[in-house]
Amino acid sequence: IEPTFIDAAATADTGVELVEIRGLDDEALAVVNRERGLSLDPAELRTIAQHFADAGRAPTDVELETLAQTWSEHCAHKTFRARITGDDGQAITPLLQQLRDATTAIDAPFLRSAFVGNAGIISYTEGTTIAVKAETHNHPSAIEPFGGSNTGVGGVIRDVMGAAHRPIAVTDILCFGPTDLAADQVPDGVLHPRLIEAGVVSGVADYGNKIGLPTVAGAVLYDPGYIANPLVYCGCIGVADDAPPLTGPHAGDLVVVLGGRTGRDGLRGATFSSATMDATTGDVAGASVQIGDPIVEKLLIDVLREAAGLFTAITDCGAGGLSSAIGEMAEGVGADVDLAGAPLKYPGLRPWEIWLSEAQERMVVAVTEPVWPQLQQLCDRHGVEATALGVFTGDGILHVRYDTTTVLRLDTRFLHDGRPQREMKATLPSPDRENADPPPCTDVTATLLALLRHPNIASKEAVIRRYDHEILGSTVVRPLIGARRDGHADGVVIADPADTHGLAIGIGVNPWYGELDPQRMAHAVVDEAIRNVVAVGADPDKVALLDNFSWGDPRRQSTLGELVAAVSGCCEASVAHGAPFVSGKDSLNNEYLGADGARHSVPPTLVITAIAHVPDANAVVTPDLKRAGNMVVQIGATACEFGGSHFAKVHGAATRATVPAPDAGAPRRYRRLHQALRSGRVLACHDISEGGLAVALAEMAVAGRLGLSIDTLPGPDPVSALFSESSSRFVCEVSPDDVDWLGGVLGEPVVVLGTVTSAATVTLPGTPAIPLDTLVSAFGAQP
Amino acid sequence: MSRPTALVLAAAGTNRDHDVAFALDLAGAEPRITLLSELIERPALLDEGQIVVIAGGFSYADALGAGRMFALQLEHRVGEVLRAFVAAAKPVIGICNGFQVLTRSGLLPGALGHNQSGHFQCQWVRLEASPSRCIWTSGVAAIDCPIAHGEGRYTHPDPAGLAGAGQVALRYSGGNPNGSIDSIAGVCDPTGVVLGLMPHPENHVIARQYPGFTRGDRGGLGLALFEQGARYAKER
Known about the structure:
The complex is a heterodimer of chains A (783) and B (236). Chain A is an alpha+beta fold and 783 residues long. Chain A has 27 helices and 34 strands. In chain A, strand 1 (83-86) and strand 2 (91-92) form a beta hairpin. In chain A, helix 6 packs parallel to helix 21 (557-577). Chain A is globular. The model of chain A has no long low-confidence stretch (mean pLDDT 93). Chain B is α/β, with parallel strands linked by helices and 236 residues long. Chain B is built from 6 helices and 11 strands. Chain B has helices spanning 17-26, 36-41, 68-87, 97-104, 159-164, 223-235; strands at residues 5-10, 30-35, 51-54, 92-95, 111-113, 121-129, 142-149, 153-155, 168-173, 184-188, 194-197. In chain B, helix 3 packs across helix 4 (97-104). Chain B is globular and about 45 Å long. The model of chain B has no long low-confidence stretch (mean pLDDT 96).
């Protein structure tokens, strides 16, 4: 809709400001840095000042803002690329390099593209490729929960579109403060966790439901560490016909922006998200949160579905808006862009606002002149705006104009490679890994019920049912499964209804391990994500991983040390399992500066997403018990490992406890278990995680609405057997005739725990029978 | 006519058009996703179809009310040809947002309000066909399929009269998920060729899509509904 009247006075101010930073000392540069919210390091400011001193001119406001965005932690991953020195003076390989090296070492045949572009790309079957990506939208969700999570979903969907794939599913992992937090415990300027949760869940639901993608996999975690800094991870999976990679942009291609109009929403989002929050963040940075419009993005999906061959390069407008999208595409090629041609939501935007706005639902494509009319026609048909803003030039210079006024002229080499590598120091953690004695447990039943009631373990049905997880008709293993469809699945499986194979998605996350032993935590959550996909029937030889780190300020040496430890745990687990990382993202500075001057950081929160191939979508397995008379067996060994456990949460931490150690036998076990699952003779399979074996058994019984009579527990002692969270374990249900067969396939001893019964009770050794209804209501399901 | 052509109408925000196209294809119809804007430009397009489907989604973001804008466009831009289509006893079905469109455009009786829960719900339901004049549910016993809506509570001032007129086609069985009056899930027009329903039979057209499939169970396929529609269009 065209405005009938344009206020000429409001549009007149298209001026460009020169910011004189040449010759300023560190102190004066720091003032500029603060006043303009650039979030740059002193060394970076010096490099920029020197660059313009050499060029013999002062930078424009647009140039300064563009450099700040491109060089922000959010866009440039300064910490993950930094030169890090340990306490002992030893150099540590840059973190991103470590992850890349692990992926290279695995050399997986299904890998197409890792750690480049918008998303990781894999190919499990001939003829199609899969793009996967997960993002965080933490800071925005803290100050505007609905808009923050809403645009987090929209942004990650565009990432997949920016990898030239059609989105087919969405994931979300949410971390909140305790929802029963007393009002007077809420820090200044912070929203109550209950308000944040309600807004975030509505925001995810609104975007996913309206755009028409199933929101399938996820997790919801609660911890006091997330009160001021909630975490919102959004993931997306896309599919495309296997085609040669796009080769553009080429000199002469048009710079075309598709989709929504540009407005003042979402200014300086990338720099804002790289800063620490405090009581004033909501007031100061309100305009940094974007406004989502899923219908416009849905139309973009429709257009791109039919636009193959009509563009030579594509990327999404995410953090940094046009500056980062066009800036990235122009790398090495150069572009000449006229901002006066950009379609605006309303008049009055200054050039830097147009260039940096993070207004949503926009994609940038490179289009050759001959097919441009064809693309215009297609966009017209779907009601999508398409505007040519300029041309890729071939001279390697990014030149941005407003009509005839130059507002930015930067060599793309300086923009992308001019940033000085960050130098950082890390103090590595020294976690307690001595074996400890099992903690006392006087009342097994009360402990089990307390665990089932714990918000991290209890039913998430109220959240899951708000998301459309049925659209596209592809969901085979749903997030809710079982006799009453109210148990939690380990992983989910999606499969095109016209196809026989599918994709499994599993999530691993455990910040409580992270607080105690980040390296073991990382190994454990990689294992958990893989365990979750293996448990539903995925092939352990075809697993790809995403890493998403949400951490505190890495300029604190101990915090960086925890990050270093976690990355090494990731790499070890990835190589051990032969599951490569294909993409990742880090969100650092998740801290809140309290009125008391103290900094509150989130616990080290690493989310691992596993995307795996399911060879037969008709032969998937779920954790709900299936039939009375069958046997349940445990696979994998238990040790006394209570560090960061949920047993410790409900009982108070023991004085000494270790985080679960990696199990070297896991990769082999998973491959053999997969063979067993493919035979169809394993009727239920559930991974053992938070709360240990007791919780796993209760969950299986609740989901199947069947009883269990357990008479044998594995070693080393009853409390560890029931509640320790040792890695790499499963419970499987098989017919009595198949117990020996299963042991034979696995090639390792299994522990026969007991029998599935039709009695509505769960009996554990030495404990009175617990009525199934009691477990159901503790879990929070409907009786 | 071997395979009747089904025009699947889609507007900005329609998102189950491909799902229902897949179902129609399996059911023996030839789906053709048609943009509402194209139909408005060339109303004669309707003559090329033997079935009209208004697919689910959030047309125009439900900005003026669920399905309202789509309904206004239908009524004022192609009302005449659409009424002629119905008068010629060619089958029409509106699913979810499409049902909302049909009630708002006056082709179907009653209205759809916010769910009793006050929010969007995604869950599987069982539908039972009531004795009615609806051609889509003729010979269909029960269907298991998901709902995914926030505004699916069917209301009508005289549900008994509606049932008496043979216009209540489908009822929720074993639980009323959204507070619909008399558990009504789908209604038809007085001629029986126009059906509107909130649940999504298009998402249960193969056995694997049923949640109980992993427990060895089979549910009533939603495919039956589309097969009936296709058969009727073909034999008419």
